[in-house]
Design goal:
Rossmann fold; 18 helices; Ubiquitin-like (UB roll); Alpha-Beta Plaits; 4 domains; alpha/beta
């Protein structure tokens, strides 16, 4: 440990910690614009400058390690003047147009300018030229708002391992974007939206479906239903100044009704349906491999995360046969809504509008894929992020925090606790194991409170092994088999895991991959700013939602059982195969 003094306060910090680390641990805030947790600091923005006794110049807190006896001032007149000048220079070339910017009142640069008391543009200079890139279904880029902090470059290259964004040019002419100044649709962008989630300004954001949804709600000829992903209930409250991880399921349901949706449903229903299909698919593959001696693509990979699907199509097409053929819960819901539910209420599929509220920007891309129309119409019409639905609630003048709780509509609003944990990294795996183990043995998963703890938490790659003991007759071939599973979240971790599998270093039966850090609770469409402390609070809230439910296994969801009885027949049956399953194809990497 190193002893130092920050603002006259004695502090201890571990060897190798930075001034920023030490200050944060001591409850002292130092503003930043380029820093990202768990990533190598680049000191690009110079907003975190501090004064260190004996140093000739001000030093960046994010990249300066602490030393024994160091004396630091984070709020001296010299520091405040330097920070103010840095922000004034950023503002001088920033074409913000704040009143109509998507990030107005949710902008780190705007907040910092206010905090530093900047009331006018001190330096009138040339503005960056506006170039709007709306070439992809999920994201919009506006280079005139970019402050060149390079956060998006860091998260795209280091965390996600995609590398769709790079700094190009020098000085004022520096531009952040795809290589050769291409649009995003010209490179291998997986549309995960992590760049939009960490951008401090409005340079990258989701492509809004808000106006399209308002028009649908106002059309008397349309029946408009909404589904909400499990991660939304633990994050939407942040749009209304709640502590991260505050569960707002009941208020969210009431708010959606007040917006005018004809029915409020839960993607959790389709998550339970996914487990029925995916669990059956896994057991079928294992039977073919172990009993029939067939060459079956193993391990089987989950297919719930559209950013991961894009990543596999671009970078690992050799593993496409290993992907579960199950559509994501979002798309399963849309297919069932426009067939089963539409028939129940007597509405034509073309007159039923399905809106999704998702933590994910890639879902906007997914709903438009050509494979996603097996219901005879587009299965899902519009996708709103958590941030977008928060804006719609505010636009409607709804006092969210004063709303009474209400329940979702039947039958597609009923779900198990296993479906809730789809929001968390490791959750799909745990939900699948709860059902698959009970199908094979007739007993509950022998884990504390049903939780498979080795696959929980924020470690990048996680593994677990479960030995099958006491298999019932239909599944006796699995008796004594140890099922090996793995979980990865964040595509950089996924790449590392896939390379181990490809090189024969690791062997598994089932693998869950989530595109975003922490899983869906850390999705690209969630309220900003998401770091590990926020992710953990949301994760814990989701586990609490699961544990508070009477039904905690997907196969025990009576509404899903009724769906099979009335409409689908059986998991992997002819009708479910047509509506709920698909295949993906290799894409060229530019």
């Amino acid at each position: 440990m190193r002893k130092l003094i920050i603002n006259g306060k004695p502090i201890e910090a571990p060897d190798g910690a930075t001034i920023l680390d030490a200050a944060k641990h001591a409850g002292i805030r130092i503003p930043t614009l380029c820093f990202l947790e768990n990533r190598e600091p680049i000191g690009a923005c110079r907003v975190c400058l501090v004064e260190v006794t004996g140093a000739r110049t001000l030093l960046s807190a994010c990249s300066t390690p602490v030393s024994e006896g160091m004396e630091v001032k984070t709020n001296s007149p010299r520091v405040r003047a330097a920070r103010k000048q840095v922000v004034e220079l950023l503002l001088s070339e920033h074409d913000g147009n704040c009143p109509v910017c998507d990030r107005n009142q949710d902008c780190e640069l705007q907040n910092l300018a206010s905090e530093l008391g900047i009331r006018e543009i001190a330096y009138e200079g040339e503005k960056a030229k506006a170039r709007i890139d709306d070439s992809t279904p999920a994201l919009v880029r506006d280079n005139s708002k970019c402050i060149k902090c390079r956060r998006c470059v860091t998260v795209c290259s280091e965390m996600q391992g995609v590398g769709a964004l790079y700094p190009q040019g020098r000085g004022f002419d520096t531009m952040i974007g795809p290589a050769f100044t291409l649009d995003l649709d010209g490179v291998a962008c997986v549309q995960c939206g992590q760049c939009a989630a960490i951008c401090p300004v409005g340079a990258i954001s989701e492509k809004s479906h808000i106006e399209s949804v308002w028009k649908a709600l106002e059309d008397p000829t349309k029946t408009v239903v909404v589904q909400t992903a499990p991660a939304i209930r633990a994050a939407l409250g942040e749009c209304f100044d709640c502590e991260p991880g505050t569960l707002v399921t009941g208020k969210m349901t009431t708010a959606l009704r007040e917006l005018g949706f004809d029915a409020v449903f839960d993607t959790d229903f389709a998550a339970d349906l996914t487990i029925m299909e995916e669990g059956t698919e896994l057991l079928t593959r294992l039977k073919k491999a172990l009993v029939d001696g067939e060459e079956v693509p193993l391990p089987m990979f989950t297919s719930c995360s559209p950013g991961w699907i894009n990543f596999a199509e671009y970078y690992y097409p050799q593993f496409l046969p290993n992907l579960s053929t199950c559509k994501s819960p979002q798309q399963m819901f849309g297919a069932v809504a426009k067939t089963y539910y539409a028939q129940k209420i007597g509405v034509k599929p073309d007159d039923l509008i399905v809106v999704s509220v998702m933590p994910c920007t890639a879902k906007k891309f997914e709903c438009g894929r050509e494979e996603m129309n097996d219901s005879g119409a587009r299965d899902v019409d519009y996708v709103l992020t958590t941030r977008e639905i928060g804006r719609m609630i505010k636009e409607a003048g709804i006092d969210f925090m004063s709303l009474e709780d209400s329940k979702m509509d039947a039958p597609m609003g009923l779900s198990s606790g296993a479906a809730d944990i789809f929001a968390n990294t490791g959750g799909v795996m745990e939900a699948a194991l709860r059902t698959a183990y009970e199908i094979v043995t007739g007993r509950s998963l022998p884990m504390e409170n049903l939780h498979v703890k080795p696959v929980a938490g924020l470690e990048g790659i996680k593994e677990a092994s479960i030995k099958i003991e006491g298999a019932v007759s239909d599944w006796s071939f699995l008796e004594g088999v140890t099922v090996n599973v793995a979980v990865a979240h964040g595509l950089g971790n996924a790449r590392r895991l896939l390379e181990r599998i490809k090189n024969g270093e690791k062997s598994y039966h089932f693998v869950e991959i989530m595109t975003c850090p922490g899983g869906c609770i850390g999705g690209g469409g969630q309220p900003r700013f998401t770091d590990d402390s926020v992710r953990l609070k949301r994760i814990n809230a989701i586990y609490a939602e699961d544990e508070g439910k009477t039904v905690r296994k997907s196969h025990e969801n009576e509404a899903v059982q009724q769906l099979y009885k009335e409409f689908l027949g059986a998991p992997l049956g002819e009708k479910s195969h047509h509506l709920l399953h698909t295949h993906y194809h290799e894409k060229d990497v530019v």
